[in-house]
Amino acid sequence: MSKHITKEIPVSLHVKKYLEYTFGKQYTFSKNDFLGRIIFGVFQRGYRLREKVRLDTTYSIKLTEDNINRLGRHVKWEDCLSLDKGIDSVFRNQLHFLMNIHKKLGFESAKEAMLQGLYEIGITESDINFESLYRDYDRKKRYTKNKRSKPNSLKNRKPSSYDFFN
């Protein structure tokens, strides 16, 4: 049986609550879920030293000795901000998906769905500003409708030999 090592990664408070809701108090590293892929992707590309930003709290990850050897022993886990940014991005995407589904099904407004989702996870206004989350959703919603290009559009496509047979 392999020995497990626990590492503490710095995260913001809302990210910690999201991770505890999704994985529990402690996460066991696996490359088969999104958090393991984010961790592996950050360290596989190479750790870039960024400006130091003080994050609110830490979340514990349980790794085997083999995982530590793959990820690299000389990584300063306490300085790694890329993990917090990646997990925050996944959190926001899932929240935006929930808001879109509720709005399309006609149950309630997107803002009410966001508040219900945050209440379910246990995230409060003191963890993250709800208005900034909603503004982020609104900005991304407008961007995807207006700025998205359609590369496979029929207008821009040249006729192919397949078109003559149908």
From TrEMBL:
Q: Where is this region: Disordered?
A: 144-166
Superkingdom to which the source organism belongs:
Bacteria
Ranges of Basic residues compositional bias?
A: 144-158
Instruction: From the Swiss-Prot or TrEMBL record, give the protein name.
Output: Uncharacterized protein
Q: Which organism is it from?
A: Aquimarina algiphila
Q: What is the lineage of its organism?
A: Bacteria, Pseudomonadati, Bacteroidota, Flavobacteriia, Flavobacteriales
